[in-house]
């Protein structure tokens, strides 16, 4: 069996595959040449992340391809249903990067609440000449403890966001299409664990009126979850972080509500026009920005590689 890890795979995942007698082609093939490469090299398994697209043309043109794997949660760069219809196995790693994404959410929350995103830009430029002025301008900061954390989405990432919020002493509200109950377990360094029963609701208005900090953790959507009507119902001074997908939040409306002070600050790790975010977003001092790096930690990539390897090895034995 041959595996093309076209967007890369962790060393641990690669080694696990090799130990199972599977050849790993760690090439980086341009999108226009992927089909030819797969066919010329008799590739059985194609592993991708966000860069490589697996559309119907590729699926049709590579009849010997048996398995298509996505390192991560979202599958929007793969025509999943069509691939399944054509007899391909589809695998992904829905939980491997959840903790990394959740930690990034709070990295942005802390940065916004304490103006770190702005002070990190300004200190090298004005720290020597305007130190006291900046100290004063950044003094209107907030603690997260005791505030209400609003989480949109109750999947693996949303649950990890909730756990961090609980550990900080935040109140938690969860919004889903249908109410549901989950038991979340917080594990501690000394072996202790504490279970929390969390119930989500589907009342958007009540959710928006209560939340001080909002984290969006949903799959890709066909329309905005947060648009002008939703912004209008939020608390004044709310903070928002989107690590889900570009297009779940109206970025033009976001800028308007930042300028009106309804939104105190927002963070975007994903963008509607990715990988070319709009300039007004990049230049706005109330935004904390990162280039779609939610799952890009050494830890998450190792877990992703190992999970993909385990699934491929299992399927190899079944094929």
Describe what you observe in this structure.
By secondary structure, the protein is an alpha/beta fold. Helices cover about 40% and strands about 20% of the residues. It is built from 13 helices and 13 strands. It is globular. The model has no long low-confidence stretch (mean pLDDT about 95).
Topology:
Blueprint: E1 2-5, H1 11-19, E2 23-25, H2 34-40, E3 45-48, H3 56-61, E4 67-70, H4 80-85, E5 89-92, H5 98-113, H6 116-126, H7 131-137, E6 148-152, H8 156-167, E7 171-175, E8 181-187, E9 193-199, H9 204-210, E10 213-216, H10 228-233, E11 238-242, H11 251-259, E12 263-268, H12 279-283, E13 287-289, H13 298-318
Parallel strand pairs: 1-2, 1-3, 3-4, 4-5, 6-7, 6-10, 10-11, 11-12, 12-13
Antiparallel strand pairs: 8-9
Helix pairs in contact: 1-13, 5-8
User: What structural class is derived from the secondary structure elements?
Assistant: alpha/beta
Helix/strand order, N-terminal first: EHEHEHEHEHHHEHEEEHEHEHEHEH
Largest sheet: 6 strands, parallel
Tally of individual helices: 13
- Order of strands side by side in the largest beta sheet? 7-6-10-11-12-13
Number of strands: 13
Which characteristics define this entry?
13 strands; 319 residues; 19% strand; six-stranded parallel sheet; 38% helix; five-stranded parallel sheet; single chain; alpha/beta; 13 helices
Provide a concise account of the structure shown:
The chain has 319 residues and is of the alpha/beta class.
């Amino acid at each position: 069996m041959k595996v093309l890890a076209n967007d890369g795979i962790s060393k641990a995942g690669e080694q696990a595959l090799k130990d199972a007698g599977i050849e790993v082609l760690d090439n980086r093939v341009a999108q226009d040449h992927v089909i030819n490469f797969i066919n010329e090299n008799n590739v059985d398994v194609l592993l991708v992340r966000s860069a490589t697209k697996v559309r119907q043309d590729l699926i049709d043109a590579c009849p010997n391809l048996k398995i298509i794997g996505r390192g991560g949660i979202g599958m929007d760069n793969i025509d999943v249903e069509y691939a399944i219809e054509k007899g391909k196995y589809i695998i992904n790693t829905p939980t491997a990067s959840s903790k990394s994404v959740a930690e990034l959410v709070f990295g942005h929350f802390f940065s916004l609440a304490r103006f770190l995103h702005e002070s990190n830009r300004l200190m090298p430029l004005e720290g020597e000449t305007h130190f006291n002025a900046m100290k004063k301008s950044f003094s209107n900061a907030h603690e997260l403890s005791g505030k209400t954390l609003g989480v949109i989405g109750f999947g693996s990432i949303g649950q990890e966001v909730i756990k961090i919020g609980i550990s900080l002493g935040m109140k938690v509200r969860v919004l889903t299409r249908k109410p549901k109950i989950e038991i979340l377990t917080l594990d501690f360094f000394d072996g202790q664990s504490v279970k929390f029963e969390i119930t989500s609701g589907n009342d958007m208005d009540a959710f928006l009126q209560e939340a001080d900090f909002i984290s969006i953790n949903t799959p890709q959507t066909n329309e905005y979850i947060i648009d002008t009507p939703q912004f209008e119902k939020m608390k004044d001074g709310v903070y928002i972080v989107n690590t889900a997908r570009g297009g779940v939040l109206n970025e033009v409306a976001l800028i308007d509500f930042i300028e009106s002070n309804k939104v105190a600050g927002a963070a975007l790790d994903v963008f509607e026009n990715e990988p070319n975010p709009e300039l007004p977003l990049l230049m706005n001092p109330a935004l904390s920005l990162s280039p779609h790096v939610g799952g890009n930690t050494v830890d998450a990539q190792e877990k992703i590689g190992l999970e993909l390897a385990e699934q491929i090895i299992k399927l190899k034995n079944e094929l």
